[in-house]
Every structure is written in structure tokens, then in C-alpha cells.
């Protein structure tokens, strides 16, 4: 009886299951719901922008908004530089956070808070686009769209009451639209004095927080509370019009205008020490004012002479006589290799009485460190004559643009003549057949001047100025400038070759007072040279 009951139950289960499957399949195939509608197919061009943005939330800003520009080049740059930016940013963050933490932890009776691990991971942020605003003010406004879904490893160790707790931040995501303002724009590098950073809307911040190995953010309700607190706190501090201000330079110093002219006459030197193994040294002097970005002025080279006489005069624009210092450095010229410094000294402008010429004999020092024992050794003396002439009220420039005005010729200039200043800035696309170590050679009224050599460079930059005192305007004169290259190797074949030349009429500079142009080099395929000419009259 028991066996028969078991067999019957098994057969009933098998038959019932089979019949149920057949009925279910039949109902699924033949009984469809009547309220199901066919999907609406619509071209993307007919979809409104709001619906399209919901469908594709990751569309870059430059696609959604024509005011945004693409920044593929910047993203590629950051991608290559990220390993180095990561270390630099983390180092800066540690430096900034250390004093802040030290100031705050005593309030909460915490022994210490330290970074056990701090790196931003291998995934750099991406710029989805940037909008640039132009205004009538001296400022530049940019609004980049930044997204960063990174994998940083930030581990903080907190010690208090003899206990040690480890907090780790993982899977950080930040989406923000900051407004970056560079102002004021100034005529000194990097050309802006302050950076102002504001947020145009509350940022999106998402991250995981592990405490003692457990994910704290998985606690129900805590994630939303922490996220809103962060958004609100950041918005209170930096939501526009509030801003984070970072000062790059003192704008008052950057906008300083010329207040006078320093006339320097390099008279000569004596008892200089021999630097060359064979023969005497070949000295020349470089001079410039501190806090000035212009290249140094320099005298001619006096070959094989330890007691040289120059008697050469220079005029330098002064912007702050209270803080600026005249630097004088004597070098030994070398045909091959680096020029060796023979000695140096400085003259603070505040020690010079205005409108009174002063002859000074300076002991040459190795360094400006007063405690350097090497300065006790004799290196010779340098004699200079200085005269500081402050501008009168009617001569002072009234705005930054006036600082670019043409200077007047120094005292002693012939009344009917003037000072011709030639500045050789740079050349482009100069290339020799055998070598490219270019320098510029100037010929004017039988006098020859040369710039320094630049090794293996098709686009050399010199930035060197040359002055010619003339009895009359050079209206009928011409200036011959040739770019040449000399071989860096000792040899008789092709020691020097011409890379192109230009012959400039000087009548235009007499009329216009100043010309700054790029000239195409004759006998060069694509070479050009930039030369600035100034005619300064008394």
C-alpha cells in the first residue's frame, strides 16, 4: 500500500507540472495586455535640450553650449603631467594643512592628526570645456567645467586619549564649475597680480569614508547628510560672489611707473686677477637694476687686460629708488665655454643723492654674503660714475602705457644729434647647411657689434641692445644686420657661414622715433629677424 501511494504521488506531480507548464505557455502567448503602447521613435534633432541632457548626462559642455571651448589639449597635457602634478599638489596640501591642524587640534583635545597616505591616484581630472569672458576692466575671467572621478588614497591617522583611529577617503568624485578671475592685469610677468576663484553653483561631491576598515557612508541616511553638509559649507565660503583670493604678486609694485633715469659710466677696473691659464683675462662688465625684467646691459670686451679702461655710459630706467639696487658683475670672456665671473658688487640707489654725480671705487667680491670668507681675498677694483636724475612733475608718465614711451637721450648728447638704440630681439627659422649656432652681426658707420652665440638653435633669442651716439640724425644712413653661424667644433672646413642678412634704412626711425618689426632675411629660405630701433633726442 505504501509503495502504491508513492508511485501515485510521483505520477500525479509529474502530470500536474506538465499540464501547468502547457497552460502557462498558452496564456503567455495568446493573452497579451491591452494597455501596452508602441514606443515612440523620434530623431534626436527633434528632442528638446532638457530631455536630451537627461538622456546623455555626460555630454561635454562644449557640445551642449556653444559658448564653451574645447580643451582637449589641456586634458592631454594634464594626463601626461599628472604623476608629477600629483606629487606637487600633495606636497603643497601637506604644507598648507600642517599649521591649520596644529592650530585646531588643541580645541578638541586631540593629540595629533597626520597623513599616513596622501596621493590622488592615477586618474586625472578632465575639463569638459571653458567659457572666457571679455570685459572693459583689466581682468580675464574664465569658467571651466571640471569633472574628476578619481581613485585617491587619503589616509588620516587621529590620536587622542591614548587611542588611534584611521580614517580613509576613497572613490572621490568632484563635479564643479568654478569662475577663475585673473586681475588686475599688469605689465610684469606673470602679467596678473591676483587669482580669484568662485563657484557658480554648489559642487557635486561624492566619496567613500572608511573608519577602522568599515565603510561609514553605508550607514542609512548618513551619506545624504554628509554630502549636503559639504556642499553647504563649501558654498558658504566660495559660492559667487564670494571668492578665494590668492595673491601672486604685489600689484602696487607691478604697476610702478618710471620715476627717473640712472646714468652709469663704467670708467675702468684695476688689479683684476688672471683667469686664463695662458695670458691675461678678457674682462667686460654687466650691469642691471634689481626688480627689473629687462636684459642686462654690458660693456665691450677688453682683451688680454687686467687693468681695463672702458669709459662707456649707460642709461637705466628707475622705478623705485628706495628698494632697487644696481648690480655690477665683471666677467672674463671666453671664446669657448661659459664666461667666468671675476667679481661683483652692488650700489643701493637710496645711497645716491639725486642730481649729484658720484664716482665710486668698488672692491670686487665673490658673493654678496657678508659672512663668506672668500670675499676677503683681493679680486681687484671697479670704478664707476653714477648720476640719478629723477623726473620732474611734467616728465612723469601718468599711466602704465607711458612707461613704454621713448626715453630722452642722456646729458652730453649733441643738440643737433641723438642716441640710436638698436635692440636685436630674436630670429626665426634660420638654418645653416653645416651648423646652426647663430649670432647677429651689426655694421653701422664702420662700427661692428655682435650678439652672443646661441648653440644649435633655429629660433635664437638674444634681447641685446647696442647704442650709437650721433652728431646728427641718421636720415641717410643704413644699418646692415647679418645672422651668422660659427662651428662649435675645431676644424678648417666651414668654420663660419651666413644664415641671411637685412639692410635697413634709418630714415623711418628718425621720423617715427621708434620701430619694432620683423624683417625677412635675404639669402634665407624662411628666416626672419626682429629688430627694434629707437631714436632718442635731447
Automatic annotation (TrEMBL):
<keyword id="KW-0804">Transcription</keyword>
<keyword id="KW-0479">Metal-binding</keyword>
<keyword id="KW-0677">Repeat</keyword>
<feature type="domain" description="C2">
    <location>
        <begin position="240"/>
        <end position="362"/>
    </location>
</feature>
<dbReference type="GO" id="GO:0006869">
    <property type="term" value="P:lipid transport"/>
</dbReference>
<dbReference type="GO" id="GO:0008289">
    <property type="term" value="F:lipid binding"/>
</dbReference>
<keyword id="KW-1133">Transmembrane helix</keyword>
<comment type="similarity">
    <text>Belongs to the synaptotagmin family.</text>
</comment>
<keyword id="KW-0106">Calcium</keyword>
<dbReference type="GO" id="GO:0016020">
    <property type="term" value="C:membrane"/>
</dbReference>
<feature type="domain" description="C2">
    <location>
        <begin position="402"/>
        <end position="519"/>
    </location>
</feature>
<feature type="domain" description="SMP-LTD">
    <location>
        <begin position="67"/>
        <end position="249"/>
    </location>
</feature>
<dbReference type="GO" id="GO:0005783">
    <property type="term" value="C:endoplasmic reticulum"/>
</dbReference>
<dbReference type="GO" id="GO:0000428">
    <property type="term" value="C:DNA-directed RNA polymerase complex"/>
</dbReference>
<keyword id="KW-0813">Transport</keyword>
<keyword id="KW-0812">Transmembrane</keyword>
<dbReference type="InterPro" id="IPR039010">
    <property type="entry name" value="Synaptotagmin_SMP"/>
</dbReference>
<protein>
    <submittedName>
        <fullName>DNA-directed RNA polymerase II subunit RPB11</fullName>
    </submittedName>
</protein>
<keyword id="KW-0472">Membrane</keyword>
<keyword id="KW-0446">Lipid-binding</keyword>
<keyword id="KW-0240">DNA-directed RNA polymerase</keyword>
<dbReference type="InterPro" id="IPR035892">
    <property type="entry name" value="C2_domain_sf"/>
</dbReference>
<keyword id="KW-0445">Lipid transport</keyword>
<dbReference type="InterPro" id="IPR045050">
    <property type="entry name" value="Synaptotagmin_plant"/>
</dbReference>
<dbReference type="Pfam" id="PF00168">
    <property type="entry name" value="C2"/>
</dbReference>
<feature type="transmembrane region" description="Helical">
    <location>
        <begin position="12"/>
        <end position="31"/>
    </location>
</feature>
<dbReference type="GO" id="GO:0046872">
    <property type="term" value="F:metal ion binding"/>
</dbReference>
<dbReference type="Pfam" id="PF17047">
    <property type="entry name" value="SMP_LBD"/>
</dbReference>
<dbReference type="InterPro" id="IPR031468">
    <property type="entry name" value="SMP_LBD"/>
</dbReference>
<dbReference type="InterPro" id="IPR000008">
    <property type="entry name" value="C2_dom"/>
</dbReference>
Amino acid at each position: 500500500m505504501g509503495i502504491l501511494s508513492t508511485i501515485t504521488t510521483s505520477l500525479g506531480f509529474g502530470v500536474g507540472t506538465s499540464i501547468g507548464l502547457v497552460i502557462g505557455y498558452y496564456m503567455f502567448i495568446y493573452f497579451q495586455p491591452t494597455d501596452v503602447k508602441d514606443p515612440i521613435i523620434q530623431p534626436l534633432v527633434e528632442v528638446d535640450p532638457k530631455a536630451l541632457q537627461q538622456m546623455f548626462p555626460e555630454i561635454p559642455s562644449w557640445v551642449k553650449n556653444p559658448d564653451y571651448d574645447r580643451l582637449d589639449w589641456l586634458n592631454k597635457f594634464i594626463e601626461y603631467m599628472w604623476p608629477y602634478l600629483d606629487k606637487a599638489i600633495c606636497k603643497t596640501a601637506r604644507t598648507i594643512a600642517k599649521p591649520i591642524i596644529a592650530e585646531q587640534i588643541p580645541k578638541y583635545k586631540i593629540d595629533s592628526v597626520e597623513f599616513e597616505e596622501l596621493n590622488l591616484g592615477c586618474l586625472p581630472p578632465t575639463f569638459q570645456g571653458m567659457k572666457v569672458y571679455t570685459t572693459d576692466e583689466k581682468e580675464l575671467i574664465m569658467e571651466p567645467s571640471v569633472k574628476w572621478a578619481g581613485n585617491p588614497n587619503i589616509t588620516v591617522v587621529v590620536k587622542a586619549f591614548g587611542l588611534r583611529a584611521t580614517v580613509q577617503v576613497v572613490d572621490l568624485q568632484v563635479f564643479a564649475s568654478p569662475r577663475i578671475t585673473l586681475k588686475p592685469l599688469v605689465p610684469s610677468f606673470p602679467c596678473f597680480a591676483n587669482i580669484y576663484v568662485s563657484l557658480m553653483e554648489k559642487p557635486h561631491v561624492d566619496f567613500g569614508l572608511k573608519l577602522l576598515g568599515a565603510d561609514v557612508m553605508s550607514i542609512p541616511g548618513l551619506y545624504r547628510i554628509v554630502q549636503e553638509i559639504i556642499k553647504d559649507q563649501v558654498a558658504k565660503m566660495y559660492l559667487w560672489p564670494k571668492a578665494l583670493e590668492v595673491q601672486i604678486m604685489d600689484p602696487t609694485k607691478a604697476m610702478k611707473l618710471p620715476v627717473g633715469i640712472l646714468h652709469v659710466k663704467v670708467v675702468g677696473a684695476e688689479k683684476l686677477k688672471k683667469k686664463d691659464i695662458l695670458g691675461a683675462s678678457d674682462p667686460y662688465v654687466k650691469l642691471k637694476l634689481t626688480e627689473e625684467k629687462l636684459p642686462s646691459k654690458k660693456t665691450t670686451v677688453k682683451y688680454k687686460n687686467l687693468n681695463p679702461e672702458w669709459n662707456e655710459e649707460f642709461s637705466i630706467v628707475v622705478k623705485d629708488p628706495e628698494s632697487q639696487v644696481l648690480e655690477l658683475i665683471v666677467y672674463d670672456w671666453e671664446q669657448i665655454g661659459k664666461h667666468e665671473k671675476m667679481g661683483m658688487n652692488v650700489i643701493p640707489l637710496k645711497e645716491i643723492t639725486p642730481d649729484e654725480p658720484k664716482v665710486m671705487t668698488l672692491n670686487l667680491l665673490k658673493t654678496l654674503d657678508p659672512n663668506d670668507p672668500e670675499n676677503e681675498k683681493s679680486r681687484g677694483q671697479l670704478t664707476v660714475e653714477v648720476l640719478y636724475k629723477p623726473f620732474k612733475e611734467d616728465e612723469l608718465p601718468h599711466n602704465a602705457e607711458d612707461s613704454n614711451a621713448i626715453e630722452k637721450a642722456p646729458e652730453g648728447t649733441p643738440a643737433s644729434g641723438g642716441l640710436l638704440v638698436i635692440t636685436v630681439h630674436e630670429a626665426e627659422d634660420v638654418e645653416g647647411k653645416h651648423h646652426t649656432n647663430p649670432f647677429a652681426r651689426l655694421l653701422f658707420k664702420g662700427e661692428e657689434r655682435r650678439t652672443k652665440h646661441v648653440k644649435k638653435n633655429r629660433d635664437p633669442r638674444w634681447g641685446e641692445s647696442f647704442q650709437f651716439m650721433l652728431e646728427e640724425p641718421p636720415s641717410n644712413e643704413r644699418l646692415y644686420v647679418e645672422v651668422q653661424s660659427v662651428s662649435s667644433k675645431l676644424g678648417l672646413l666651414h668654420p663660419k657661414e651666413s644664415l641671411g642678412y637685412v639692410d635697413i634704412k634709418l630714415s623711418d626711425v628718425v621720423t617715427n622715433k621708434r620701430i619694432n618689426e620683423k624683417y625677412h632675411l635675404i639669402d634665407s629660405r624662411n628666416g626672419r629677424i626682429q629688430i627694434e630701433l629707437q631714436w632718442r633726442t635731447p
